[in-house]
Amino acid sequence: xxxxxxKDQNGFTLIELIVVIAILGVLAAIAVPTVxxxxxxxxxxxxxxxxxxxxxxxxxxxxxPGNTRAQGKPQFPILGKGQTSQDHLNATTTANLTxxxxxxxxxxxxxxxxxxxxxxxxxxxxxxxGDDDGVRDIDGSSPDSWTTVQVTKGSKTxxxxxxxxxxxxxxxxxEGFLEAVPDSASADNTPEGxxxxxxxxxxxxxxxxxxxxxxxxxxxxxxxYEGGVFP
Length: 231
Hints:
The chain is an alpha+beta fold. It is about 25% helix and about 15% strand.
């Protein structure tokens, strides 16, 4: 039996290897952006589907016989729907409220709503980046803050904590309109006293047209879908 020498064995030449590597590089350059675009559009579709699902649950809650009335009218499932203490009404001035994700903690700095949960509000400009660093700081001494929302009852004007209008998902779960709190819901949607962990990227709220909207939790000056982020 004759053993072939290395010289007799066929293999790739250096030029052939360079050509193959170049082809693989071109294919990667085409494939990677395509895959990224697909993943991005898939996440945006998921965000849109989540918004529709929450809107359906909110609408069902409003027409539910179990809906707790305020001044004889049904209330939306928002965090502040039960926060109506007369001691915490503010009819004097606007305010900036520290961003501590704990707005309803029984203190005198709370600004409740005399209209209870009967309406939503536009929160697109409700958050202030106090130090203009493009980063949300959350603690009791945060320079970042939430504004108040102006509402009118009768002939009198009141100023309400903007966080009042974030959706109470646990109310929707309790009433059977959602199976569970959405994974996309951020800590801004946490009801007072809740033991549920909220770790999503969006603070979902109800706007003045009774439509479900969201703020990007990591920078709430951004409304709606944040590119490439879901849940």
